[in-house]
Write a structure and sequence with these properties.
The protein is α+β, with helices and mostly antiparallel strands. The chain is built from five helices and six strands, in the order αααββαββββα.
Length: 262
């Protein structure tokens, strides 16, 4: 259970650190305060400075994704695998000997990132999201943007995410929906936590095939925000989801951040 999403068993809600359409979505939350919509945060995120260090961290993460893909799909001989394992153990030792610790402030959750913590490097934490983070080798990654009153996503899952043969594991499908829906619900003009996520798996979702996801706000009643989303591959609906989010007091998350950083 994620500590920042009480009652939610799925990981992540957010928006992408690159490939973001900063100009769309500003009018999506009907009747909402424009300053509270997602668009200003997306603009800041899109403007994240590509420092030399960030470029290299992202490059290293992509290399690790390539290694993971090659490893889980390899049919190499034992001797070749042993040699590769020796190389990776040496690399692990080298990286393990380097200074370590948290390199960013905040949290990689766009749906709840209403305020940037004082002293934080602008939106750097999004780089470390397990679904959208270009600096996180666990990330597929998902590329999220606004198109009018919808949030759209392009993503391709590799071999490491396999469930049924040749298909994305249902847990990752659910996690991707939670990520997208978390960004979509922000179009309501506020931020919320996932209270419920329901997924209907219509057809298997293929690996190594570009997926198109779309999410939108369905309705809002007080603190309750409902959002819906779909996944399409090769022009066919693969899965759809609906989630309920509950608007929250940002101070609650500041307390969690303080507890985590102690």
């Amino acid at each position: 259970m994620s500590p920042d999403r009480p009652g939610d068993t799925d990981a992540g809600a957010g928006a992408d650190a690159v490939g973001v359409d900063a100009g769309a979505g500003a009018d999506a939350g009907a009747g909402a305060d424009p300053e509270s919509l997602m668009s200003p945060r997306i603009e800041a995120l899109a403007a994240l400075e590509l420092t030399p260090r960030r470029v290299e961290v992202r490059r290293l993460a992509q290399a690790m994704r390539d290694i993971i893909e090659a490893l889980v799909s390899s049919t190499a001989e034992t001797e070749d695998l042993a040699s590769a394992a020796d190389d990776l153990e040496r690399l692990a030792g080298t990286l393990g000997a380097l200074p370590s610790g948290q390199t960013y402030q905040g949290f990689a959750e766009a749906a709840i990132a209403g305020e940037l913590p004082e002293g934080a490097e602008g939106w750097a934490f999004f780089d470390h999201s397990p679904f959208i983070g270009l600096a996180n080798p666990m990330s597929p990654p998902m590329h999220i943007a606004f198109e009018g009153d919808r949030v759209v996503c392009d993503v391709t899952f590799g071999s490491a995410y396999e469930g049924p043969p040749g298909c994305v594991h249902g847990g990752y499908v659910a996690g991707a929906f939670d990520e997208l829906l978390g960004a979509a619900q922000s179009l309501s003009g506020t931020q919320g936590m996932t209270a419920h996520l329901g997924v209907d798996y219509r057809r298997p979702t293929p690996l190594h095939v570009p997926l198109r996801m779309e999410g939108w706000v369905d309705r809002r009643e007080g603190r309750k925000i409902w959002a819906k989303a779909t996944i399409v591959a090769d022009g066919e609906l693969r899965a759809e989801a609906e989630a309920l989010f509950i608007a929250f007091d940002p101070a609650d998350f500041l307390r969690l951040l303080e507890a985590r950083d102690e």
